[in-house]
Automatic annotation (TrEMBL):
Native source species: Pseudomonas abietaniphila
Residues in Carbamoyltransferase domain copies: 104-193
Name recorded for this polypeptide: Carbamoyltransferase N-terminus
Swiss-Prot/TrEMBL keywords: Transferase
Pfam families cross-referenced by the UniProt entry: Carbam_trans_N (PF02543)
GO MF, one annotated term: transferase activity
Superkingdom assignment: Bacteria
Lineage: Bacteria, Pseudomonadati, Pseudomonadota, Gammaproteobacteria, Pseudomonadales
Length: 294
């Protein structure tokens, strides 16, 4: 049996699997051949795949997705959410005048099943799975019968949060409110190790002028101030000032407590404790019921 499987939305892809020989015949990604990164499944890719087939497939599979993002009420195929298989679609359809089997499983379930299939565990051995992506950050249990159950949520929209934090500190970020760059979340996740490698080879980085410290300063609720010049101590005697990145201001844009700059060069960012922190600590519990935060 040959399965022709397509993945819609960002990072579009298509693959052909022969179950009789347990072989992945081929797999193509939409962004290859100089198409844009994260590109969707496109007509050029469809034509390339058609040339590889000498007959129609037995099964056409569509990975679940959602129109316009993560909306739960605008499904493509089995949609984005759902882990237990209740939203799976399996039925006969007409495909270029021939009857084939149509199958679709949710995007979430595809995450789990793909991880399980590529894991070192043999089928029939129970294991845990962590889904960590733009919209979902949850633990699941895959039992001996490959039934999936939800164990708990670690973080809601982890990828979006990581991407937002990276963009907040990036002076080149230009997208409008509510928009993100798909590559930013992964950059932030890799930042700690990347900076550690840089610090091992660049003395100035080891002295404290690191983007990692900048992100830690933001996370701790500090006010970030821009200071001209390079002769700024990495740490004051009282330990309250720290260089956290290097930058030369061209045009300042204030975003909350953060001053963003347009061009990186030889000046320095320093971080000091937020003087309003004690007052905010007292007020936040009072206003939290409104969903706001200072």
């Amino acid at each position: 049996m040959k399965i022709f499987s397509m993945k819609p939305g960002q990072d579009g892809a298509v693959a052909l699997i022969d179950t009789d020989t347990a072989t992945l015949e081929w797999s193509y990604e939409a962004e290859k051949d100089s198409f844009p990164r994260y590109d969707v499944f496109n007509p050029a890719l469809l034509m390339d795949c058609a040339r590889q087939l000498d007959t129609l497939p037995d099964v056409v599979a569509v990975s679940g997705w959602a129109k316009g993002g993560f909306a739960a009420n605008s499904d493509i195929g089995s949609g984005y959410y759902g882990f237990d298989g209740a939203k799976n679609i399996s039925k006969n359809i007409s495909f270029f005048g021939n009857t084939v089997r149509y199958f679709s499983s949710s995007h979430l379930r595809s995450h789990i099943m793909s991880a399980y299939a590529m894991s070192p565990f043999p089928q029939g051995k129970a294991c845990y799975a962590l889904v960590w992506e733009g919209a979902m950050g949850d633990f699941y249990l895959v039992d001996e019968e490959v039934n999936i159950s939800h164990l708990g949520t670690v973080m809601i929209t982890p990828g979006n949060k990581y991407g937002f934090l990276y963009a907040l500190a990036d002076p080149t970020f230009r997208l409008p409110k509510g928009k993100q760059r798909l590559g930013d979340a992964g950059k932030l996740m890799a930042l700690e190790e990347a900076i550690s490698n840089l610090e091992a080879h660049i003395p100035e980085m080891a002295a404290g002028a690191t983007p990692v410290a900048y992100f830690r300063a933001l996370a701790a609720g500090h006010t970030v101030l821009q200071v001209q010049g390079t002769n700024v101590p990495a740490l004051d005697a009282d330990g309250t000032t720290r260089i956290v990145a290097t930058a030369k201001p061209r045009r300042k844009v204030t975003v909350g407590k953060v001053v963003k700059v347009r061009r990186l060069n030889i000046s320095a960012w320093v971080m000091r404790p937020d003087p309003m922190a004690p007052a905010k600590a007292r007020l936040n519990p009072i206003i939290r019921q409104t969903g706001s935060r200072l």
